[in-house]
Design a protein that fits this description.
280 residues; Rossmann fold; 2 domains; elongated
Length: 280
């Protein structure tokens, strides 16, 4: 039985092409096309946007994006075995899907897409966090993307939206909330995937703000936050002592206390400290 887009169900596609999710690539395939369409709709109106998708695999989410009217989709896939499936989808949606075989960490989306650009992806587990940090910390803002609709392990999603004082609050919380508005849009149980992962997943919707909430140099802020949370149970004066000999004075000048711990410092507080260290 054909799906609404005229293509075979994903289970048939996977069986026909002999595809298997590869652990080394962090792959887990979503098979429910109703679910992938729901994820695509979380990204908003796609009819006026180009979409970047990382790790499409057999193309379940790709089909959802195209069916929901995405103007154009760039699908970056590292697994050569998935390319024939993606080319079949491309043929069913002429001129609207470009498939690039390569590593998402090496691809410049601006060489393929036109603004506005939305990123929608079931990110491979092994590069998801690195990609997110890259997208959140470009030197210039606004970024190339208008929004990010990304699936992560639920634990990672909770870290992105966590507030100061919570156990989940950390580096990703600060970087995401500094320049964007993140929220958990939906949760997805392990049974939705093949192979079945051991953890629940969640889709995070991240909308870029026109400008950062507080001024700070992105490089300095990233360095301060990474160092502070690398030893999150230590006081700031100990965790950050390698940044500058007079770190206690700098912490006080930023309106913080040297005895504070990173998990208690707000996004505004980290930005104030980054400005103080940049001004030295």
């Amino acid at each position: 039985m054909m799906a609404a887009d005229g293509l075979p169900p994903l289970r048939e596609v996977i069986a026909q092409h002999g595809l298997r999710a590869k652990k080394a690539l962090g792959q887990n395939f979503l098979l429910d096309l109703n679910l992938t369409a729901k994820i695509a709709r979380q990204a908003g109106d796609l009819g006026r946007a180009d979409v970047l998708e990382i790790g499409p695999g057999p193309g379940g989410l790709t089909r959802g994006l195209l069916a929901e009217g995405a103007r154009r989709v760039l699908a970056v896939e590292k697994d050569a075995g998935c390319l024939p499936v993606l080319e079949e989808i491309s043929a069913a949606f002429p001129g609207r899907l470009e498939v690039v075989h390569g590593d998402a960490l090496d691809i410049d989306p601006l060489a393929h897409l036109n603004a506005p650009i939305r990123v929608v992806a079931n990110l491979p587990y092994n590069i998801g966090t690195e990609l997110l940090v890259r997208w959140l910390t470009p030197p210039d803002w606004p970024p190339f993307w208008q929004s990010l609709t990304l699936m992560f392990q639920k634990e990672v999603a909770q870290r992105i939206v966590a507030q100061p004082g919570s156990r989940a609050y950390g580096r990703l919380s600060v970087l995401a909330q500094w320049r964007s508005a993140p929220r958990i849009a939906m949760e997805i149980p392990p049974d939705a995937f093949t192979p079945r992962p051991k953890v629940h997943s969640a889709v995070v919707q991240i909308d870029a703000l026109p400008e950062p909430r507080f001024p700070a140099d992105p490089g300095m802020l990233s360095a301060v936050v990474a160092k502070a949370f690398n030893q999150r149970r230590k006081m700031l004066r100990s965790a950050l002592k390698g940044l500058t000999p007079d770190i206690e004075e700098r912490i006080v000048a930023a309106g913080l206390r040297p005895t504070d711990r990173a998990e208690k410092v707000s996004v505004e507080g980290f930005c104030a400290l980054a400005r103080e260290l940049s001004a030295k």
